[in-house]
Amino acid sequence: MKHHWTFKEIEEIYSVPFVDLVFRAQLVHRKHHAPNEVQGSVLLNIKSGGCPEDCAYCPQSAHYKTGVARTELVSVEDALAAARAARDQGATRFCMGAAWREVKDGPQFDQILMMVRGVKELGMEACCTLGMLTGDQARRLKAAGLDAYNHNLDTSRERYGDIVSTRAYEDRLRTLANVRAAGIGMCCGGIIGMGESLDDRCGMLMTLANLDPQPESVPINALVPAPGTPLADRPPVDPIELVRMIATARILMPKARVRLSAGRLALSREAQVLCFLAGANSIFYGEKLLTTGNPDVDADRALLRDAGLRAAVAAD
Hints:
It is built from 11 helices and 12 strands. It has helices spanning 7-14, 18-32, 76-88, 107-121, 135-144, 157-163, 169-181, 198-209, 239-252, 269-277, 297-306, and strands at 37-47, 93-98, 125-129, 148-150, 185-187, 190-192, 217-222, 257-260, 280-285, 288-289, 292-293, 310-311. It is globular. The strands form 2 sheets. Strands 1, 2, 3, 4, 5, 6, 7, 8, 9 and 12 form a 10-stranded parallel beta sheet that branches. By secondary structure, the protein is of the alpha/beta class.
């Protein structure tokens, strides 16, 4: 029987002495995953800028002047060329992100479906993040071969309205339900560093951990303050707090891939290794995550090599 996590339980886990928390998370990690294996993924921004949502952290929002240009959807050929390059770099998952509030049926969605089919033909996992989905759209993506859909909660239900006003928390949960009903893997996590409280962090983790089934992938992002957005002046996230979030997520969701995502460029090599020790077992390769910086591939390879970690190989 699946355990239903309470807020008190999660707060107690998050707040134990740091070394004890990381040790417990590492034990859980080793029980469910290859201990020294890290999956490499690549995220391609297939359509940037001009998003009608007002997410306070996002430089792609049309509500803010951030210098991010609005672009049209990339061609299928260009997307698949990027996927081949990602595969050659050692990535086993290729993610495609579009700055949309929601998916619209029509030629552009048909183009996305072609991209998904092409990525699968390359022997890679295919992932998309396209905004809100209907049940029919989720089923069509599944039929095209989509492995995972990314749709983050961002923060707690209580804090959500302070970060996004153009859609409700329930809209997020509805899309996740459509994804799950279609049989697509769920990639769902959040962001820290947006001025949230400890209660907000634990509340977000509680929502994630009590999804049934739990997400297969949980990205933990540290805010990258973008000039022009309402959160542009937020201070950097303390790496220790990021490790705490990763460790707690690993304990609550033992079978998930915990993804060390946005904000990694600001971390030292030692801080990244601490994240791996706490249970993170996936990173994004490449120079950018949508519009924010990311360590380059050579630096990542050197980091994994020096830490005695190995890249995960593609599934048969």
